[in-house]
Amino acid sequence: MFRDEINIKFQSGKGGDGHVSFGLDKKPNGGEGGDGGNIYIEGVINEYDFSFLKAFQLFKAGNGELGGKNRLSGANGQDYTLKVPLTTKIYDLDGNLLLTIDKVGEKKMLLKGGRGGLGNFFYKKAHGVDLYRFSYGKDGEAIEVKMKLELFSDIIFIGLPNAGKSSILNELTNAEAKVGAYAFTTIIPQQGRMDNVTLMDLPGLIEGTHSGKGLGNRFLKHTKSAKVLAHFLAANSEDIKKDYQTIREEIENLGEELATKKEIVILTKTDEISPEKLREQVKTLTSIKNKRFASKDIITVSIFDDKSLESLKDFFKKSL
Ligand SMILES: Nc1nc2c(ncn2[C@@H]2O[C@H](COP(=O)(O)OP(=O)(O)O)[C@@H](O)[C@H]2O)c(=O)[nH]1
Ligand SMILES: [Mg+2]
Fold first, then answer.
1. Ligand 1 binding pocket includes 269 (Cβ within 6 Å)
2. Residue 269 CA, ligand 1 centroid: distance in Å
3. Confidence of residue 185 (pLDDT cuts 50, 70, 90)
4. What is the separation, in whole angstroms, between the first and last Cα of the chain?
5. Over the stretch 9-51, which tens digit does the pLDDT of each residue have?
6. Closest Cα to residue 215, out of 192, 185, 190?
7. Alpha-carbon dihedral of residues 263, 43, 187, 269, nearest 10 degrees?
8. Taking a C-beta distance cutoff of 8 angstroms, is the pair 145, 92 a contact?
9. Residue 266, SS3?
10. Residue nearest to atom 7 of ligand 1 (CA)
11. What span, in angstroms and rounded, lies between the C-alpha atoms of 258 and 192?
């Protein structure tokens, strides 16, 4: 199940204690403890939601090791890096924003590990009195956070069920979206990367609303970053104007921010109709009043026509 909000706990490592030891010359030579590991959060493209996490799961960085003799420092604790989808916002439980992770490969520190303690070698040099003096490593920090996801995309697919959105996403990207009819529970966002462009099929936005689940608003936050709406229409439709208007109405209802995004139209399944019928469908589309696209914003495509798929790729890139 798609999950875009989750509470997670983190704990950075404790610092290792300083060491107390003496050399053959009887002089203090205990080294310092290692620092505790830090907690980092990093953005990745191969996670699309938080369903790989368990609510309230605890992630810990390693503790620093004890200092050694002969002034040897203890090893630092292992850092822990949690990889998250884009864009992840991390809040404390009072609702303060702690971190925003919106770039691939960008690593930000959430918690710092505790400093390692000092050994008796250090204290001998600094104070010279108590030969057994050392300090303990500092504790790490612990926190529970709320992580919220606002999916990043350049282009969002919209359209009636069966318009061919999942098929095109699969053809143009590495995505493995389910094609054809499926249960409501799998109405989850699907993302794919086409060179540097992120395409997203967000069936919950419209299809969730259609199946009476009124999910549109829940998915709205995932539309924020998109610059373009790719409106998919099946060319073999008996009432293509109505198909267009049905979706358009949903989009308008979902709010101005979404409705005012640039729109392009993808006329799919062209292999199912004759060239004459196709021309007719395009003509019908261009005659729609109050439409948000121009004639140049329409493209025709069939998954069985590789050339048309290549053109679609360019069309998508140019739309940005
Ligand atoms: N003939 C033909 N069928 C297609 C084409 N694109 C998709 N389909 C079929 O249309 C059905 C719905 O496609 P799907 O991608 O799941 O549509 P979605 O509901 O908009 O995601 C599936 O049976 C696909 O195999 C196409 O270009 N030509
Ligand atoms: Mg689909």
1. yes
2. 7
3. very low
4. 31
5. 999 999 999 999 999 999 999 999 999 999 999 999 888 899 9
6. 185
7. 40
8. yes
9. strand
10. 164
11. 21
180-188, Cβ contacts within 8 angstroms, sequence gap of 24 or more: 184/208, 184/211, 184/213, 185/1, 187/211, 187/215, 188/1, 188/2, 188/49
For the domain with range 1-150, which CATH number is right: 2.70.210.12, 1.10.3720.10, 3.40.50.720, 3.90.1010.10? 2.70.210.12
The pLDDT assigned to 130 comes to 85
Q: Count H helices, E strands: the chain?
A: 8, 14
User: Per-domain residue ranges for the chain?
Assistant: 1-150, 155-319
Q: Which of 74, 73, 63 is nearest to 113 (CA)?
A: 63
Most ligand 1 atoms within 8 A of CB, residue of 160, 162, 268, 312 to mutate: 162
What integer best gives the mean pLDDT of the chain? 92
Task: Give the list of residues 6+ apart from residue 142 with CB closer than 8 angstroms, or none.
Answer: 9, 10, 11, 12, 111
| Distant-in-sequence, close-in-space partners of 88: CB < 8 Å, separation ≥ 6 | 41, 43, 99, 100, 101, 102, 147, 148, 149
What average pLDDT does this structure show over 134-154?
96
pTM, two decimals, is: 0.82
**What is the pLDDT averaged over residues 212-227?**
81
Q: Is the pLDDT of residue 127 over 70?
A: no
Q: Indicate the Cα dihedral angle 234, 219, 86, 149, nearest 10°.
A: -170
- State the amino acid at position 7 in one-letter form: N
Mean pLDDT, rounded, for 143-170: 94
Name the CATH superfamily housing domain 155-319.
Answer: P-loop containing nucleotide triphosphate hydrolases (3.40.50.300)
Ligand 1 closest atom vs CA 170 = 15
According to DSSP, the residues that pair with 199 across neighbouring strands are 155, 192
User: What is the position in ligand 1's atom list of the atom closest to the CA of 159?
Assistant: 20
Beta-bridge mates of residue 147: 6, 90
